[in-house]
């Protein structure tokens, strides 16, 4: 575990904090956290805590929405065959499931397609378009992809197959010649909210179709749980429309989940939970959906999510459950080998470029992220594919991976991605050159000073102020995600009460209090075996944590989810 820097966020003006706290009848620390997030008035707080579906924007504000909806309705009227095409990850497969189920409610002439991760790669493929032609489709609706598929869309046009693109990725210099492009990030689009997921854009499309036609038997709101899953998994900002969609999507999955998601909840052991949260989706549902595309084919995930019979959904769900188990085993095994390789890279302390011809390509991105958790440095993990090394790259805060790979273009056969994540391929013989150049570029960027991860702390509080009322306000700040992360607190000079434990040799468990007669809280630090020595040798600590509720056998209690701990230093400055 790397050493973290602690940074307490700038605290709002005292008078502003007191005023908001009084108006909302909450503590000053909670009011300060709201102000940090732009919630600085009673009216904004009302909208924040009580989002409404009426706050969603008119879908026809999105460029080309008129064209797209008219083309689809025309196809339905004429009985044309339609292909719903999507990426193989959670965002893509949920988007396909939503649009397929919605259009299926009106016609049987609808098909779905997901590219094979290993033979076709990401995005709209020639193979997919050829399949559309074989199925006699005259319209393809591409979800979570397509905005850079200029060549593939030109090919589709040459076959007389129109393409409607629903994508949320940043467009390239030249847009493809699609029939319509729904993407708030294209320059000519004035849609007010730019950060929808791919599935979110699909949802705006079915909203538009519902407004134009009353012949669809399923209302858009029926699919909000799918949209929420995409928002949680794709790590888009939990602000604006995404907050509204996720809020009501959580409500839907907690009260009346779609059959396919109900099956996945059962398989993941989450149906027994009294209240599902975004974290349950991120760690419980998303990995299972992703496992299909990583290990075999994304078709399997869609087959679960579009099931209209629970027994059928459970049967198909068990297949991706096994794939997820296989993925976890490969993930753990590959991570161990990758970390061992990094430890051997004595001359590379700022970056990691590692390779094995035996690693499974489906877990390379996950493994790169795991390596960054252990060694905080930009990481590229490669495996053999044919005559090339192909793999995934992940970065850290402040280091632009895209720009760096651009400067390594002469060593690479193919690459693409964004600031923090990328995919690449190169001749195996070029790996040593890439290792050295990548290391020098990272080293130069950070001025020869190894970067350290930063924990952003919202506020310092006393343990005695943590109670059910305090937690109930925190709970109402959900759903959490980028732009509205779960609040992080610091409490100083906490004493250890009794011996600590290491659960399963990797999870820290300790009992902490701030004063002798003050409340004692159980603290749990997941994957924090590195803190065992610190806690063994010391009794008083400064602790950074979030507050969680543990509901075990009907007994509820508040706990500290430890993010980091340091030995208390009486002479240290705040």
Identify the notable features of this structure and list them briefly.
five-stranded parallel β-sheet, globular, five-stranded mixed β-sheet, 574 residues, inorganic pyrophosphatase (n-terminal core), 19 strands, OB fold (Dihydrolipoamide Acetyltransferase, E2P), Diaminopimelate Epimerase, Chain A, domain 1
Summarize the model shown.
The chain is α/β, with parallel strands linked by helices. The chain is 41% helix and 20% strand.
Number of strands: 19
The share of residues in extended strands comes to 15-25%
CATH fold-level assignment of the domain at 59-218: inorganic pyrophosphatase (n-terminal core)
Strand order of the largest sheet: 3-2-4-5-6
- Low-pLDDT parts are none
Q: Determine the structural class based on helices, strands and strand pairing.
A: alpha/beta
Whole-Å distance between the termini? 23 Å
Quaternary state, please?
A: single chain
Q: Give the integer mean of the pLDDT values.
A: 93
Number of helices: 19
The name of the CATH architecture of the domain at 59-218 is Alpha-Beta Complex
Shape: globular
Q: What Rg do the Cα atoms give?
A: 25 Å
| Biggest sheet features | 5 strands, parallel
Helix content: 40-55%
Highest-level CATH class of the domain at 59-218:
Alpha Beta
Description of the molecule:
The chain has about 575 residues and is an alpha/beta fold. Among the domains are: about 160 residues, inorganic pyrophosphatase (n-terminal core); about 100 residues, Roll (Diaminopimelate Epimerase, Chain A, domain 1); about 110 residues, OB fold (Dihydrolipoamide Acetyltransferase, E2P) (Beta Barrel). The chain is built from 19 helices and 19 strands. It has a 5-stranded parallel beta sheet, sandwiched between helices. A 5-stranded mixed beta sheet has the order 7-8-9-11-10. Helix 4 packs across helix 8 and helix 5 crosses helix 13. The longest helix has about 35 residues. The protein is globular.
């Amino acid at each position: 575990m790397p050493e973290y820097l602690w940074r307490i966020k700038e605290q709002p003006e005292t008078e502003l904090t007191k005023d908001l706290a009084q108006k909302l009848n909450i503590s000053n620390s909670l009011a300060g956290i709201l102000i940090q997030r732009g919630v600085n008035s009673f009216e904004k707080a009302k909208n924040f805590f009580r989002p409404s579906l009426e706050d969603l924007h008119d879908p026809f504000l999105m460029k080309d929405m008129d064209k797209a909806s008219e083309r689809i309705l025309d196809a339905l009227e004429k009985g044309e065959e339609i292909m719903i095409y999507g990426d193989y990850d959670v965002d893509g497969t949920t988007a396909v499931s939503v649009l397929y189920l919605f259009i299926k409610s009106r016609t049987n002439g609808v098909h779905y397609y997901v590219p094979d991760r290993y033979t076709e790669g990401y995005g709209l493929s020639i193979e997919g378009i050829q399949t559309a032609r074989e199925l006699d489709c005259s319209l393809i609706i591409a979800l979570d992809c397509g905005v850079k598929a200029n060549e593939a869309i030109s090919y589709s046009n040459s076959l007389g197959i129109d393409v409607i693109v629903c994508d949320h990725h940043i467009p390239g210099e030249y847009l493809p010649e699609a029939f319509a492009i729904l993407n708030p990030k294209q320059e000519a689009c004035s849609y007010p909210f730019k950060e929808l997921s791919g599935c979110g854009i699909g949802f705006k499309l079915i909203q538009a179709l519902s407004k134009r036609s009353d012949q669809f038997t399923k209302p858009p709101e029926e699919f909000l749980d799918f949209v929420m899953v995409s928002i949680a998994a794709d790590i888009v900002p939990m602000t604006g429309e995404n907050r509204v969609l996720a809020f009501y999507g959580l409500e839907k999955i907690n009260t009346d989940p779609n059959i396919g998601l109900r099956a996945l909840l059962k398989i993941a052991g989450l149906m027994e939970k009294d209240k599902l949260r975004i974290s349950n989706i991120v760690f419980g549902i998303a990995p299972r959906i992703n496992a299909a595309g990583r290990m075999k084919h994304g078709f399997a995930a869609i087959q679960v999510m579009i099931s209209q019979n629970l027994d059928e959904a459970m049967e198909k769900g068990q297949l991706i459950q096994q794939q997820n188990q296989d993925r976890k085993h490969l993930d753990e095994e590959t991570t161990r080998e990758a970390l061992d390789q990094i430890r051997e890279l004595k001359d590379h302390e700022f970056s990691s470029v590692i390779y094995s011809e035996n690693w499974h390509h489906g877990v390379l991105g996950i493994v790169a992220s795991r390596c960054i958790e252990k060694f905080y440095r930009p990481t590229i993990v490669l495996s053999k594919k044919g005559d090339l090394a192909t793999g995934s790259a992940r970065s850290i805060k402040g280091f632009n991976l895209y720009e760096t790979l651009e400067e390594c273009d002469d060593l690479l056969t193919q690459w693409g991605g964004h600031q923090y994540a990328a995919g690449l391929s190169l001749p195996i013989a070029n790996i040593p050159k890439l290792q050295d150049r990548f290391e020098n570029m990272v080293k130069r960027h950070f001025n020869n000073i190894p970067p350290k991860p930063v924990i952003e702390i919202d506020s310092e509080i006393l343990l005695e102020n943590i109670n059910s009322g305090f937690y109930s306000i925190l709970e109402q700040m959900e759903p959490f995600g980028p732009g509205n992360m779960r609040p992080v607190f610091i409490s100083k000079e906490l004493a250890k009460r009794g011996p600590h434990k290491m659960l399963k040799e990797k999870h820290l468990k300790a009992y902490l209090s701030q004063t002798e007669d003050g409340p004692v809280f159980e603290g749990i630090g997941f994957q924090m075996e590195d803190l065992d020595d610190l806690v063994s040798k010391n009794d008083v600590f400064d602790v950074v944590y979030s507050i969680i509720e543990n509901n075990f056998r009907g007994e509820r209690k508040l706990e500290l989810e430890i993010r980091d701990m340091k030995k208390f230093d009486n002479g240290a400055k705040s």
